[in-house]
């Protein structure tokens, strides 16, 4: 993440040349309000790190009543909680790649981008609650130093401060984004990404209105610290 360039996003939330009238934006594609929020910037960050050379999404396709052009299983819409995905299996011991980002200084919030098999999440149904729990556990593991007991409070605070997380599974062609509302602490998945293969190298993003979901993310319980301290996390 050091040296990773912040993607250029225009006023309408679109990325680079895709925002131009003659760009690759398709009919029905639009910049939702969510593309002006930190979760959209984190998604573009993650795509730039883990899918270099893939064409960035120009905006988001609105999913209405669970349907949109090209949208379907394994993804679904779970009312106000936003998107979820169904995973065929779950496996322990998988270690996906991850990058931690920080936003703000006085009361920083953390964001994490995770890339790897979705089976690592440990649930066959991955929704907002499942993804935020997984993201906070990984953040705790990254910030906890097994040789430094003083790192425990920092790791716990960091895990609690995770407000945005992006999970990318290039092999399965899916991406899921979760955010925590800073005021209400409601947890939702407002963005889903469909990742094309190496021959296509495109990413299509889908957006679902999330009007105050009632679920709330929990701090990881009994997290198993394995990762090294993640000092110098990039900003997003």
Please tag this protein with its features.
236 residues; alpha+beta; three-stranded antiparallel sheet; globular; disordered N terminus
Helices and strands in order, then pairings?
Elements: E1 29-30, H1 38-50, E2 60-62, E3 75-77, E4 83-86, E5 97-103, E6 109-115, E7 125-126, H2 128-143, H3 151-160, E8 162-169, E9 174-180, E10 187-195, E11 203-207, E12 234-235
Parallel strand pairs: 2-11, 5-12, 6-8
Antiparallel strand pairs: 1-2, 3-4, 4-7, 5-6, 8-9, 9-10, 10-11
Helix pairs in contact: 2-3
Walk me through what this model shows.
- With 236 residues, this protein is of the alpha+beta class.
- It has helices at residues 38-50, 128-143, 151-160; strands at residues 29-30, 60-62, 75-77, 83-86, 97-103, 109-115, 125-126, 162-169, 174-180, 187-195, 203-207, 234-235.
- Strands 1-2-11-10-9-8-6-5-12 form a nine-stranded mixed sheet, with helices on both faces. A three-stranded antiparallel sheet has the order 3-4-7.
- It is globular, with a radius of gyration of 17 Å.
Coarse shape: globular
- How many strands appear in the DSSP assignment? 12
Distance between the termini: 10 Å
Read across the widest sheet, the strand sequence of neighbours is 1-2-11-10-9-8-6-5-12
Strand content: 25-35%
The structure class reads alpha+beta
Give the count of helical stretches. Answer: 3
